[in-house]
Amino acid sequence: MSGIKQIFNKEMARIFKDKKMVFSVFLLPVLIMVVILSIVNGLASNMKDDIESHVAQVYIVNEPEALNDILDASKAKFKLKSIDGAKEMKQAKKEILDGEADLIVEFPDNFQQEIENYQEGSQIPQVKTYQNPSEDYSRTAADNMDAALEAYRQFLLSQRVSDMEQLTVFQINSDNDEMYIQDEKKASGKAIGTMLPYFITILLFAGAMGIGTDMIAGEKERGTMASLLVSPIKRSSIVL
After folding, report:
1. pLDDT tens digits, 132-190
2. Region 98-105: what's the mean pLDDT?
3. Which listed residue, 32, 100, 137, 179, has the most CB atoms within 10 A of its CB?
4. How far is Cα 224 from Cα 11, in angstroms, rounded to an integer?
5. What span, in angstroms and rounded, lies between the C-alpha atoms of 38 and 110?
């Protein structure tokens, strides 16, 4: 045990007396982490801005008249193109697959008539959407279109039901701007504290790898490994 302690003290003394080693083990991983996180954050922000500024190419089948007004009122950017027939639908799906288009919205035939003539027990019309979830533009266009279709659904429902409030039994925090009661500094500290264990783990592994490689390769380069091996210390102590 004394041999392990002696070797450990020698290594610690060598590390903390070497400014380059202290920098590479304790400071360099922190700097690298900060730089990487800054780059990742910048790339993510640029990607988000690019997606938000993108005008989605959307194909629509059997487009209702009132839908245009709903889409114009939304904040999303759509470039609409009507298609008809199986051949155009097949071509549109191919463009979705290739990433050349973003979304297809298919309304059933006689959609408006089915809405107006609906009676209890009638089949509810189904609106179909086609997207490519592996494409950011397509996924975002689908989310924005879902929001617009929900607004369109509420518009049609308001025409069918005279008082929409009858369908809303109660609301939750619809006008409660003070629903969160918290200390902002404490909340920020909690967020940092959540990430801190991961940072410490990364730093420990990064520092240990730097020291560990130098213990073997460095001892051989400096010629001190032979001295250790011939010293009256068990080789198991050297390894430990």
Report:
1. 999 999 999 999 999 999 989 888 888 888 777 777 777 788 788 888 888 888 888 88
2. 95
3. 137
4. 12
5. 53
Q: How many CA atoms lie within 13 A of 216 on its CB side?
A: 7
Query: Within a 10 A sphere around the Cβ of 167, how many other Cβ atoms?
Result: 10
* Separation of alpha carbons 148 and 76, rounded Å: 9
Region of 193 please: left (phi>0), alpha (psi -120 to 50) or beta: alpha
Query: What is the residue whose two structure tokens read 């463009």?
Result: 95
Distance of alpha carbon 89 from alpha carbon 61, whole angstroms: 9
**What dihedral angle (degrees, nearest 10) is formed by the CA atoms of 86, 88, 90, 91?**
170
Fold assignment, 55-115+124-167: D-Maltodextrin-Binding Protein; domain 2 (3.40.190)
Tell me phi and psi for residue 78, to 5 degrees: -125, 140
By three-state DSSP, how is residue 88 classified? Answer: helix
Comparing CA positions, the residue from 55, 104, 61 lying closest to residue 76 is 55
